């Protein structure tokens, strides 16, 4: 399976891991490796199934679940299950504090940021659709009232101007919540991650730790300023 994967033959690799699973159905790494194959093939439901199975086996044996949680988060993200994806990535971030899993942190950070960005984009699209529908209904009502009650041209043009201004206001750029610090509620310039996977403006979280105590202001988990790491993925989005 590994050889096929390295050659980019992901379907063949998945079949090889399936054969291995038939022989060793309790080995979590086999499900994780097959999930990686399905990820390359964009078979997200299959990724989800294998990641869930691997997570269960890892938890039963007391093994670290970072890889399974990351795969599960990625699957949920691509299936538009954003709340579940965020939970998985956050759990993976907490467990990846160990040096041996440091290589995963960048991918997990990107996953968390993707969840927040995609959620914001979907909310923005939904809001724009609702506003367009409302404006269309209002315009129809004005036209109907004008025909029935003889509303003057000046009044109609004034309402049209209001509709135009509303549209311009909607088009003005808005700062997504995922780019704002959870302490200052302002756009972050130097975002950093806590061990629990929460992102803050560096100056704000350092000030919090100095004034309020050594704990994460969102999760309440113990932490120190030395454990903060730059959120490079989010920094790139902001820049």
In short:
The protein is mainly alpha-helical.
Structural notes for this entry:
By secondary structure, the protein is mainly alpha-helical. It contains ten helices and three strands. It has helices spanning 2-6, 10-23, 28-40, 44-61, 66-78, 82-95, 102-149, 153-171, 202-212, 232-238, and strands at residues 191-193, 199-201, 229-230. The chain has a three-stranded antiparallel β-sheet.
Please supply descriptive tags for the structure shown above.
3-stranded antiparallel beta sheet, 10 helices, 239 residues, 3% strand, single chain, mainly alpha
Can you tell me the overall shape? Answer: flat
- Biggest sheet character: 3 strands, antiparallel
Q: What ranges have pLDDT less than 50 throughout 5 or more consecutive residues?
A: none
Q: In DSSP terms, counting alpha (H) and pi (I) runs of 4 or more, how many helices? A: 10
Task: Summarize model confidence as the mean pLDDT.
Answer: 82
Helical content stands at 55-70%
Number of strands: 3
Radius of gyration: 25 Å
Q: In what order do the strands lie side by side in the largest sheet?
A: 2-1-3
The ordered string of helix (H) and strand (E) elements is: HHHHHHHHEEHEH
Distance between the termini: 40 Å
Class of secondary structure makeup: mainly alpha
Question: Proportion of β residues?
Answer: under 5%
